[in-house]
Amino acid sequence: MSLSQTFQALSEPNRQKIIDALKKREMPVSEIALNLNITLPTLSHHLDILKRADLISGRREGQQIIYSLNLSVVEEVAEKIAKFLTTDTKFRSTD
Amino acid sequence: MSLSQTFQALSEPNRQKIIDALKKREMPVSEIALNLNITLPTLSHHLDILKRADLISGRREGQQIIYSLNLSVVEEVAEKIAKFLTTDTKFRSTD
DNA sequence: ATAATATTTAGATAGGCATCTAAATATCTA
DNA sequence: TAGATATTTAGATGCCTATCTAAATATTAT
User: Is the Cβ pair A88, B20 closer than 8 Å?
Assistant: First the structure.
C-alpha cells in the first residue's frame, strides 16, 4: 500500500467514522451503519476501500459480517505517516 | 483544517514530493518544479492546496516566490493523525 | 422449500479534481 | 519603457469517486 493510497483511504469523512467506530470494538455492518447517514451499498463501498487498504478485515458470522480494525497495520501506517511528516532530511545521508 | 481536508491535501503524490523537497530546505517554485513532471500551472495549483491546508507558506523574493514548510503545523498534523490512528477508545470516557 | 434478514454487486449519475494551454500579473534588467 | 523571467489565473477536458436504486447472493428460520 502506497502512502498516497493510504491517505486517500483515510481522507473520506465516512471512512474516518467507520475507523472511529471500529476502534471501540469490532461490529457488524448493520451496527456501523447506525453512525452514518449513507445507504448500505455506499457503506459497503467504503468498507471495500478500507479493506483494500488493509486497514480493516471482515469475517462472516452467520448472516452478519463482522468488521474489525487491523490494529498492527494501523500502527504501521501511523508510524509511516509520522516518519513522512516529521523526519528532518536536512542532515540525513541519501539512504 | 479538518482531518479529512488534511488527509486529502496529503493524498496526492506530487504534493507529497513537494513536501519532501521542502523538508530539506525552502526553495522557489522553479526549483520545486525540477522534481516533478507537471507544468507550472499544475504545480501552482498544488502549492495553493498545500497553502490552504496551512502546510506551507510562500514569500516573494524579487521575481521568485520562496516556499517553505510550516514546521509547527506539520508537527501538529502529525500528532493529530497519530492520535486518530492509535488512540484506543475502548476504555475512554466520552470526552 | 419459502420467506426473512444481512450484505454485496451492477449500473447510472453528479460533482470534484488533476491536468493542460493560453493569457495575465509581477518583478527585474537593459 | 521594453523585454525577459517567474508565477498565477482562466477556462476547458477527462477521469475518478461518492452516491443512489434495483437486483443478486448468502444465511437463517419457519
Answer: no
Q: Is the CB of A42 under 7 A from strand D?
A: yes
The Cα–Cα gap between A89 and B40 comes to 25
Q: Which residue is nearest to nucleotide D10 (CA to C1')?
A: B41
Q: Which three cell numbers stand for residue A5?
A: 493510497
- Which residue do the cell numbers 491546508 mark? B53
Instruction: Please name each of the domains of chain A with its CATH number.
Output: 3-82 (1.10.10.10)
> Residue A93: how many CA atoms within 13 Å on its side-chain side?
1
Over residues B23-67, the pLDDT tens digits come to 999 999 999 999 999 999 999 999 999 999 999 999 999 999 999
A94: confidence class by pLDDT, cuts 50, 70, 90: very low
The answer to whether A44 CB is within 7 Å of strand D is: no
